[in-house]
Amino acid sequence: MATLQDIVSLAKRRGFIYPGSEIYGGMAGFYDYGPLGNELKFNIKQSWWRNMVQMRDDVVGISAAIIMNPKAWEASGHVGTFSDEMFKTSVGRTENDSSVAYLRPETAGGIFVNFKNVLDSMHLKLPFGIAQIGKAFRNEINPRDFIFRTREFEQMELEYFVRPGDDEKAFDKWVKERVAWYKSIGLKNIREHEQPPEERAHYSKATIDIEYEFPFGWQEIEGIANRGNFDLTAHQKASVKDLAYFDEETKEKYLPYVIEPSAGVERIMLAVLCDAYTEEDDRVVLKLHPTLAPYKVAVFPLLANKEKLIAKAESIRDALKKRWMTAWDDRGNIGKRYRSQDEVGTPFCVTIDFDSLEQNDVTVRDRDTMEQKRVAASDLEAYLAERLTS
Ligand code: ATP
């Protein structure tokens, strides 16, 4: 199993994760994401968004402002009641009591305050969900374990609204759906932990954490909670706006109950990196699921100084990059180039050699099996597509 130090050093060396503002000595609890880390994060978010929004008929997505009217945080209990008042900031040129605002501690607030807007503009019927991906900030935490707990991070949250009474069934369904998504991105080593009543928030009827076994132990990567109608009740009361849903079937008006699967992008990224990191004989390989791999394919001209080889390799790369994030490497021997792509998890490498010029074919090398196969240039895209999407 990888140690955290293995991950930290690979992440820095290969452009995944850098300490925040490093040239000024860093800043505890903040990290910057390099070219490969940024791609990996993007792929995690894209997979979540496709699965949770685009592939479903009952979920829509929004993107709310990070800074909200502070009254929203008073209503949710974050300001005044909870211990963490978060990140205070000031809006406008002059700083006074009425200019105080907060960077959001979670993305869910932006969903609840838009519940009525989305309901009215999209003509939705229960059950339905509203999803959001965005930054969240927490001040009063102790940053630890690399990107596991930081002051600035990204959340992927769904608020799934249901008729009261349908909540327990929906909760069970969402736990299954979320576990299935983790499996679909290759994260198999996960478990469910049901929070006992004394651990969970007072408004929560049930909470199940999805946990991953990190080098520092089993830890939460996502929480799924049955929040009842706590949030809508609080916002309805504080805003004095009617947030009730009119049920055309039963002709009743009520505040729906909500099931909330809430995940952190960076925690999933750390779990994915720990899970993928493999040391084998003379190589380190990140066995990332192809959906998540920053580069799907790397293209190598055998030699950097042969014009015909370069031209052929460039034309192959231009065709592949229309479809996939593609790397190019013309430095050093091919073995070293393979090792370099293994370390960042690129599933396939394509080499163009002198025979390629004669035969119009390429060598495709598989990251996991290290097998090499000659494939006709005209079949290359289909060959890769079959293996990258399976
Ligand atoms: P923990 O108790 O581990 O701090 P939490 O229960 O406060 O987490 P939630 O408020 O339920 O977390 O947030 C949902 C998800 O957001 C978590 O499962 C985690 O993936 C992510 N998350 C929460 N706090 C942080 C943080 N400080 N740094 C990175 N990710 C976080």
Automatic annotation (TrEMBL):
Keyword Membrane found: no
GO cellular component: cytoplasm; extracellular exosome; microvesicle
Residues in Aminoacyl-transfer RNA synthetases class-II family profile domain copies: 6-290
PROSITE patterns, per the entry: AA_TRNA_LIGASE_II
Transmembrane portions of the chain: none
Cross-referenced SUPFAM superfamilies: Class II aaRS ABD-related (SSF52954), Class II aaRS and biotin synthetases (SSF55681)
Pfam families from the UniProt entry: HGTP_anticodon, tRNA-synt_2b
Keywords carried by this UniProt record: Aminoacyl-tRNA synthetase, ATP-binding, Cytoplasm, Ligase, Nucleotide-binding, Protein biosynthesis
GO molecular function, one term: bis(5'-nucleosyl)-tetraphosphatase (asymmetrical) activity
InterPro entries: aa-tRNA-synt_IIb (IPR002314), aa-tRNA-synth_II (IPR006195), aa-tRNA-synth_II/BPL/LPL (IPR045864), Anticodon-bd (IPR004154), Anticodon-bd_dom_sf (IPR036621), Gly-tRNA_synthase/POLG2 (IPR027031), GlyRS-like_core (IPR033731)
UniProt-listed GO biological process terms: diadenosine tetraphosphate biosynthetic process; glycyl-tRNA aminoacylation
Record bears the keyword Aminoacyl-tRNA synthetase: yes
NCBIfam families registered for this protein in UniProt: PRK04173.1
Name the record gives this protein: Glycine--tRNA ligase
